[in-house]
Design goal:
The structure is a homodimer. Chain A has about 350 residues and is an alpha/beta fold. Chain A has 11 helices and 11 strands. In chain A, helix 1 crosses helix 10, helix 4 runs parallel beside helix 5 and helix 6 crosses helix 11.
Chain lengths: ~350, ~350
């Protein structure tokens, strides 16, 4: 990475695009007025993009528009994606890392297709067995990294070891001062528990942890993830996806139940007047838009997937994530971790 | 089942036993004064049990004490359990189904050992490929059944089909008026998603659902579990355990954050005066003690595992669960479901 950072954005992906994508960009630019040398390559229908650049008063010399008339639809399947999605805004935004020297790509479009095209165009890093989808989660002690969240349904011990290296590189790129603690998601904390792959990964990670890229904290159970005592949680993509969505569903269930209770009678409604700021802060702290953006790790370039349904604030947070990742030298950190792995 | 119901209780399992176990029993007896013909076989140190029967003023002619001096320790592993745990309170309470005609066994002791002894003494029902651990969860639309929660780390399609029959029998025994809707826990709702076992189970369940024991609702993702649109959620034990614990951890994280926010300043503290009853009701609705008790299904007799760390109220709820299960004819319903499966 040079000091110049270029973020390629698929302006057409997700609900309410390109409006929310461009509005998200305007929030980012407002919040980062003093930061120099961030460039944006925007991919999509140029006419539409210009309408929203005007609407949100973006007049930045560092923005380039690349006109693409075609868009990947939500119905497109990964099976036919490579044939059908050539020259779409998604395809070209990923390809931008190869031909326009962009450092990272962001899209809120069809996830399955994004993974397939990213893999094909950017290619998997030689030493990585499988790329993985990672995300930041809130916890009692700050953000943590969780992976794989669904890129790989079945994983062996080597995949889990690679995810540990990739996840700790991601953590270090965002929190450069910390040495990450890595744990394997399992159904018990004793060494003998779990599937064969997990037990083998445990032994390998105990050895690899001596190299010093991260500290290996052993197994972690689902109920301890959000305690925040460990910074990187590693799992196969099936289990990680179930854990992610179960956590989302539980959070929604509880906050909905709370809302219902607090609107129930006149007294509880009065209480809302007094607790307004406290509840706002509570809501703000756990706002899922702050954690919007899954990172596809293990390819020769990073790709960030924003939630399709998020709004401009959520999209802003995923732009910010792209910026932090590139600024934090993610790709170099991955190479560094992997080179240690090879020495072993 | 005759009209007489006998519940065998391991009085020594779990923290603070036998005090909480006997106090839980006293709560049950107080709440079920009018119910006749419920008998209890209590297993443990007779002297200790009598102290607490006196303390909690239980003087019931339907209680029998079976003295056992030995207790399964928390450190005992499933590997050596069969050798070491003979004639413990846990062992004898399970064996009571064989020699004292108890209908069900309840213990708050060591889970791994309980599963091993139960399996050995009660034996798996012939038509069942693997027994499974099930529990009731709260949802937006009432209680749901989730299984397997950790008895089997790896499961094939036949196991998942059996779990569907076992889980829907359990649901019907507790909610006799409803025809259960069954879903398979997966990482997407499309038919092509998931592992091979899940996809094969999907096809089988679509067919079996025509028999009429339950309606098959297809796949369900983690974020939809608590919506309550489906009554029985089926999963392998590894994934189910991760989902259960992640849900627990998320619930704790959110309620802790809420508590912290509401105690933050003088206004939010005042708000608590007004919202006291609403928040109490909210807390009460989601009180995990109400959902205390995992049911080991697929053996020739049912075994309920109470949380070791629960209190008397939690233990009362697991006694109540035992009562409901036997009253609802669980074992007959399982046999009925399995016989249909066989006709197929």
């Amino acid at each position: 990475m040079t000091d110049k950072i270029t973020i390629a954005i698929d302006a057409m992906g997700g609900d309410n695009s390109p409006s929310k994508n461009i509005e998200g960009l305007s929030i980012f630019l407002r919040k980062n007025k003093k930061v120099e040398n961030i460039h944006f390559n925007l991919f999509g229908k140029e006419k539409d993009i210009r309408v929203y650049l005007n609407k949100f008063k973006i007049n930045d010399k560092n923005i380039k528009i690349f006109n693409c008339e075609n868009i990947v639809s939500d119905e497109e399947t990964p099976l036919t994606a490579i044939k059908n999605s050539k020259n779409t805004s998604m395809w070209n935004s990923i390809n931008s890392q190869l031909i326009n020297n962009a450092d990272i790509t962001l899209s809120a479009g069809n996830t399955g297709v994004l993974l397939v095209i990213s893999r094909m165009l950017l290619k998997t890093i030689e030493k990585v067995s499988k790329p993985a989808l990672a995300a930041l989660w809130p916890s009692k002690k700050g953000s943590i990294v969780v992976l794989d969240l669904g890129a790989n349904i079945e994983c062996d011990e080597n995949n889990l070891v690679d995810f540990s290296e990739l996840g700790s590189a991601l953590y270090k790129s965002i929190f450069p001062k910390e040495k990450p603690k890595v744990s394997l998601l399992n159904i018990g904390s004793e060494e003998i528990k779990g599937t064969d792959s997990i037990k083998k990964a445990y032994s390998k990670l105990k050895e690899i942890s001596k190299i010093g890229d991260f500290d290996f904290n052993g197994y972690i159970e689902g109920n301890k993830i959000l305690e925040g005592d460990t910074n990187v949680i590693v799992s196969d993509g099936f289990t990680g996806n179930i854990a992610l969505k179960t956590a989302e569903g539980t959070a929604k269930f509880i906050t909905d139940s709370l809302k219902e209770s607090l609107l129930e009678n006149i007294f509880s409604r009065i209480s809302l007047l007094f607790s307004y700021f406290a509840l706002k802060k509570f809501k703000n702290k756990l706002d899922p838009r702050k954690f919007n953006g899954a990172i596809f790790l293990g390819l020769k370039g990073p790709v960030v997937k924003s939630h399709g349904g998020t709004d401009a604030i959520g999209f802003y947070h995923s732009i910010d994530l792209c910026y932090k990742i590139v600024k934090g030298n993610l790709m170099n950190r991955i190479q560094e971790n992997l080179s240690h792995l090879n020495e072993k």
